[in-house]
Amino acid sequence: MRQHDSPLQGKTILLVNTGSIKKRFIIQRLKRLGLTIVVLNREKNWAQQYVDHWIIADNTNYNEAISAIKEFLSANPHIKLDGALTFWEDDVLLTSRIVDKFNLTGVPYGIAKNVRNKFLFREFCRTHDIPTPQHLLVKHESDLQYLRDQFAFPIVIKPAYGSSSAYVVKVEKKEGLTDLYRYVKNNLSTSIESALSDGLDIFAEEYIDGDEVDIDILLQNGRIKFYSISDNFNKDKGLFFVDSGQAIPSSLPANVQSYILEMAEMTVEKLGIQNACIHFEAKHSKKGFFPIEVNLRMGGDYVYSYTKSAWGIDLIEYAVKIAIGQYIPKIHAPETPKKYIIGWDLHPDESGMLVELDNPDTLKKLKYVEEVEIYKHIGDPILVPPEGFEHLGWLTVTGENTIDAQDNLEDILTRISYKVVKFDPESSLGKTERKSRTSAAVLNKNLLIRTARLKAINRGESDDIKNLKIGILANIYKETSDPIAKNITESATAVQKTLETIGYHVSTINLNNFLGSLDVLRKGEIDLIFNLGERLYDDDSFKPQITAIVDALQIPYTGSDVFTHSLAADKIRFKKLLAYHEIPTPAWDYAYELEDEIDDELEFPLIVKPSSTDYCLGITDQSIVTNRKELQRELERIIRTMKRPALIEEYIDGDEYEVYILGNGEENLRVLPLCRTIFHGGTQKPWHINTYESKWLQRGDQAMVTRQLPPKNISKKIESLITEIALDTYNILNCKDYGRVDVKVDRDDNPYVLEVNPAPWLNYSDPHGLASAAKLAGISFENLLEEIIRLSIERYKSKATKT
Fold it and tell me: 704 and 680 in contact (C-beta within 8 Å)?
């Protein structure tokens, strides 16, 4: 059907979460149907070219998400939502909340919560006379004894909010119960299975041995308009359950299929589901029919593909029609399918790195191949149980009958060539021994991801570094009157937009949502962090800890490490380091307590400032003191009021220089044109310093300050001396990739180092910042960012060869 002929043309659908890029085929289909697509998502992402409107909100925070929708509709009164739906298990509950709040067609929240939570679903079945396995919510390890006493083994342990068999384990004997329960409890993670964001409850149930089937159902006004039964291949892989594949149509006898459909219809009716596209999972055993899951969204991976190929039914289109309340007549499937289909997941035997992969496009040319979807690239880690629950991708094949389809599946599996290898036995990974199959799973997973990231960095040549997945770690403020927060946000936005424009795969990770940031970082989908982080919990004193966290997660990143950031942030330790290396700096002392004695040899005027703040915070016109009384006043303000140690320096009257440096070590260091600040007026008030008010609030007489880039009318001797001192300081602190050294020159042309900033802001709108200094040196903002990325990659490569 052509787009302009679609009965959905002009309708507006709210898509709750785009899902990962694996779901691209869904949003492409929605676009071809002529829909106006409004997406509710944490951030704009790969789907941007298909989306008409974005509503940015945290989908795990239902109140925030619903408020964001209200704000969007209020700001866009011409837009009317005709329906809402999701294709992502994580957002089933949120979608039901939206359905309730905006009076849309769908599954109410009261029903959805009993279905989404598998334990509650078991309880619902038990109380409504629907067959259900014996089950128990395991709240504490002490509950395991009840399982040993009251349950017949084998049993299954699983998360109540899980998806796709993640963390589902089979316990064959009582003796292994404690270890396997601890494995599930200790390893449950939203970074591995994002659907667990709804909760981490664990329950146990009787293992049902039998044929597993899936039923894809279109339900409207309480009536089944279409159904399709498919056979699930055995998921049982020893301890774990792994999706293997499905065949359609089902090979079960007709009378068994009729019984299964009848039981599914009864279950849906008792649940009270009226309108939905459902993926119903069940088992048919000697004990009867047991519903296992009711997924209130279209089935994943190849479900859409084989349903359309076998029966000609477009589940995406019908899911939309149901969501917007467009009537659909009952669909009578033919007695025999158009094609016999088998979908198959591609799983390696062990976790490792993908090192070889034939071009899947060659497989698509085979006449019996319906679709091939490969998610992984060479160099990517693939984590299978117990480390993770991933697969390489999936495929669907066709045949003239079931046996023919099976033969074709065997044929294509012999043609698929990929290799996943365990890591170098000389590495840490090879030295990690396990007491059991499930021990140290998290450690093993992290080592795999770390190795893969470093491999990605090491293979990043100049021609293909744009294939690296770059995460911009930053603080993003939507609305703020704080000038520092505005500049922090502008810097991150400028970097993201520029890297995207020149072809990089970029996503921004907002540190203001710290726990959400951790989840994103732990997923292992980022090859390199572009570190622009300034604050944690809105506190700049935690800035060094940002790099410590990224180091702990073993993700390569741009810029200096925690050691350098910590030294630069602690001005007292920094001064001690300068003194040790005989780098010229104003005479100084410090105080942690008001009772601490201050060196009598320091000559007034002095400047008193907090020892651990950035952005000139705590520096005012009163920070310059000319006698002991004023000194005591400022010490009390900083130590008692600001609760920071105080740094006391002799005041240097003169011009201030910002020295921007690119590079690492001695081989590739570059000093950019200097930026000079000239303070006019006499040697007394206003004092020749940058205060918080003058720098950020633009208060004071701006005519008293001139900034020059490059500096004018200074001697080559002074320029060289400033440059050399700045380079020495940069190297002493072991700054990496880029940084800034602040130097003040007195009236006798003596330079003194004041501070080092290991991560100056990258904002092209600052006429005297790093980007402007680079531009003056012939380096565009685009090239500057690429240079920082290349410098970090070369640094990690060098580190790898040394180790």
Answer: yes
Return the ∠ at Cα 158 (arms to 156 and 160), rounded to 5°: 135
CA distances from 313 to 25, 221, 231 (A): 16, 19, 18
Measured in degrees and rounded to the nearest 5, phi and psi for residue 271 equal: -65, -25
Number of H helices, E strands in the chain: 24, 34
| Whether residue 329 has a cis bond before it, omega within 30° of 0 | no
User: Which helix H or strand E contains 281, and what residues bound it?
Assistant: strand 276-285
**Which residues have a Cβ under 8 Å from the Cβ of 488 and sit 6 or more positions away?**
474, 475, 477, 532, 534, 535, 761
- Give pLDDT tens digits for 135-185: 999 999 999 999 999 999 999 999 998 877 788 899 999 998 998 898 888
The structure tokens listed for 525 are 């989908």
Q: How many CA atoms lie within 13 A of 646 on its CB side?
A: 29
Domains annotated on the chain, with CATH: 3-104 (3.40.50.720), 111-346 (3.30.470.20), 347-459 (no CATH), 460-557 (3.40.50.20), 652-803 (3.30.470.20)
Q: What is the chain's Cα-based Rg?
A: 32
Could you give the C-alpha distances from 145 to 172, 176, 583, 780, in angstroms and in order? Answer: 15, 12, 68, 67
Give the DSSP H/E element, type plus range, for residue 37: strand 36-41
Question: Between β-strands 469-474 and 505-510, what pairing exists: parallel, antiparallel or unpaired?
Answer: parallel
- CB-count exposure of residue 631 (10 Å: 0-12, 13-18, 19+): buried
Q: Is the pLDDT of residue 526 over 80?
A: yes
Residues 6+ away with beta carbon under 8 Å from 274: 107, 219, 220, 221, 222
Q: Are strands 670-671 and 654-662 parallel, antiparallel or unpaired?
A: antiparallel
CA 66 to chain centre: 22
pLDDT tens readout for residues 100-140: 999 999 999 999 999 999 999 999 999 999 999 999 999 99
Cβ 53 vs Cβ 72: under 8 Å: yes
Residue 345 in tokens: 């997941």
Distance CA 546, CA 734 (A): 18
